[in-house]
Design a protein that fits this description.
Layout: H1 2-18, H2 21-25, E1 36-38, E2 41-45, E3 48-50, E4 53-56, E5 60-66, E6 72-76, E7 80-85, E8 90-95, E9 99-104, E10 112-117, E11 129-133, H3 159-184
Parallel strand pairs: 1-4, 2-5, 4-10
Antiparallel strand pairs: 2-3, 5-8, 6-7, 6-9, 8-11, 9-10
Helix pairs in contact: 1-3
Length: 185
């Protein structure tokens, strides 16, 4: 019986080490590192905003394009597109005042970026950003382009966090049950 308890303890220990790796393996973040750029386009590709940091002048418009087969979104303080963007979807945002405007993909933790407007020393208040939809030409018959419009309201709750919490609770209860059952023997 002691051997069975040791086996369960080792299995539980390994599960605790392996399970947290699953969300990280799901994607998110620029695994090739931060990229800097200039221009007027930020692409979502390989679970990364490219360039990660884009410098623009005040009043310039930036187009956010999902060129990735995965669904992404652009969540930011008061501006962005909070719904899922499929491959080929795009929207534009115009940055009128100097500042740093950070943003992230809610679906992929670690997938983040920033627009640096002018010197970057302004407040970076999202209320000064105007967001418009744009429709891109179809690259191929396989890719469908949707016009994305600005969403109002708050961003949806990250389902991954809820699933992780439920999985962690279930794993903890299971380990506790096994240990309690083993201590009776």
């Amino acid at each position: 019986m002691a051997r069975r308890t040791v086996i369960w303890m080792v299995a539980a220990f390994l599960a605790v080490l392996i399970v947290p790796v699953a969300p990280a393996a799901a994607g998110g973040g620029c695994h090739q590192g931060v990229t800097h750029g200039e221009g007027d386009t930020v692409e979502m590709v390989d679970a990364c905003f490219t360039p990660t940091i884009l410098g623009v002048d005040p009043g310039e418009t930036v187009t956010f394009v999902n060129t990735d087969p995965m669904t992404h979104n652009v969540t930011a303080n008061v501006w962005g597109y909070f719904e899922g963007m499929n491959e080929g979807d795009a929207f534009t945002a115009t940055f009128d005042q100097a500042g740093v405007y950070p943003y992230a993909c809610e679906y992929h933790p670690g997938m983040t970026g920033a627009i640096v407007v002018g010197s970057g020393t302004g407040a970076g208040n999202g209320e000064t950003v105007s967001v418009d939809s744009i429709e891109l030409p179809q690259a191929s018959p396989v890719v469908q382009v949707r016009t994305v419009t600005q969403s109002s309201g708050s961003a949806p709750i990250a389902i991954g966090w809820i699933a992780g919490a439920v999985l962690g609770l279930a794993l903890g209860l299971g380990i506790g049950f096994v240990l309690k059952k083993g201590s009776r023997a």
